[in-house]
Amino acid sequence: MNRMETQPIRQKLQNILRWFVPVAAILAFASWMYISPEGALGKFDAIGYAVCHRIDARSFQIGDRQLPLCARCTGEFYTAGFALIFQIFMSGKRSKLPSRGIIAVLVLFFLAFGIDGSNSYLYLLKQTSQGGLDQIPNLYVPNNILRLFTGSGMGIALAAALYPIVNQTLWRELDERPALEWKSFGILVGLVAFINLLILTDSPIVLYPIAYLSALGTLSLLVIVFAILWIIIMRQDNLFDYPCQLWLPFLSGFTLAILMILSIDLLRLQLTGTWSGFPGLSG
To answer: Does residue 17 lie within any of the structural domains?
Structure first.
C-alpha cells in the first residue's frame, strides 16, 4: 500500500477517533468519579491511591486527615507538576536537554531519591519483620523532611527530562536551545526549596493547595506520557504548530491515564478493602 492510498485511511481513522475518544473519555471519567471517594480531596486520594502506598505515618496531615500522597510522592509529583508549568512559561518550545553540568546535578537528585527511598523501605521492612532483619543496619532514621526534599529532587529531574522530550515529539519547528539553563534551573530549585519549607510549617493554607497540586501533578505526568505514546503510535510526531491542535492526543492521554488509575484503584480496593494505606504497614 503506497503513501497516497494510506492517506485516506488515516484521515478516516482520525475522523472516527474525533468522535470515539471524547465518548471514551466521558465514560472513563464518569466511572472513576463513581467509584472514588466523595469530595474533592477524596477524588485526589483516589489518584494518589493508584501510585502511592499512602501510609498515614509517612504522610503530611491537615488536622487528622492525610494528604492524597505520602511525603515522598507529594514532593515528587507536586514538584514535577510545578516544574512543568515553570518550563512552559520560561522555556516555551525549547527542545534540547540541559547541559552536562545540570544533568550531573539531576543525577545526584536521582541518587538521593534512590538512597533515601531504599533506606526508608528497609526501615519499614524491619518494623514489619519482627526482628528478622535487625542485622541489616539503616544508614539513618528516615523522616518526612528527607522524603519531601528527595522526592522534590526527583520531581525536578523528571520534569527536566520530560519537557524537552515532549517538545521534540510535538512541534514541527523546534527551538534548539536547552529547556533549562543554569539561571532558570537555579530559580526553579530555589522556588521548590522555599515551597518545601512552607510545607514543613504544616499550615493548612499551604497544605491544601499542595494536596491539589500533587494529585494533579500525578495525573498530568500520566496524561503527558500516554499522549506522547499516542502521538508516536499514530505517527503524528513533529506535525503540530499550535497548542490547540493537541486536543485529541492529550484527550486520548487523559482517557488512558484515567483508565489506568481506575483499574489500579479497583484492584487495590478489592485486595485491601480500604482507601487508606496498605493494612498492617506503618512507621
So the answer is: no
Q: What is the C-alpha to C-alpha distance for residues 217 and 199, in angstroms, rounded to an integer?
A: 16
49 Cβ contact partners less than 8 Å away, ≥ 6 residues apart: 68, 264, 265, 268, 275
User: In this structure, is residue 4 part of a structural domain?
Assistant: no
Contact (CB, 8 A) for 171 and 241: yes
Contact yes or no for 36/261 (Cβ under 8 A): no
Contacts of 162 (CB under 8 A, 6+ apart): 80, 84, 221, 224, 225
Please check whether residue 30 lies inside any domain of the structure.
no
User: pLDDT, tens digit, for every residue of 235-273?
Assistant: 899 999 999 999 999 999 999 999 999 999 999 999 998
Tell me the HSE value of 221 on the side-chain side, using a 13 A CA sphere.
26
Q: What are the distances in angstroms from CA 202 to CA 47, 73, 144, 195?
A: 22, 17, 12, 12
What's the whole-model pTM score?
0.91
Are 117 and 150 within 8 A, CB to CB?
Answer: yes
Domain that holds residue 210: 37-272
- The answer to whether position 19 is within a domain reads no
- Residue at grid coordinates 526508608: 120
Q: What letter does residue 42 receive in the DSSP assignment?
A: H
| Contact partners, residue 238, CB within 8 Å, separation at least 6 | 169, 170, 171, 172, 174
List, for the chain, all residue ranges whose pLDDT scores fall below the cut of 50: 1, 3
User: If you write DSSP's letter for every residue of 211-266 in order, what string do you get?
Assistant: HHHHHHHHHHHHHHHHHHHHHHHTT-TT-BSSGGGGHHHHHHHHHHHHHHHHHHHH
CA 59-74-250 angle, to 5 degrees, is 140
Q: What is the pLDDT of residues 40-55, one digit of tens each?
A: 999 999 999 999 999 9
- Please tell me the total count of domains within the chain: 1
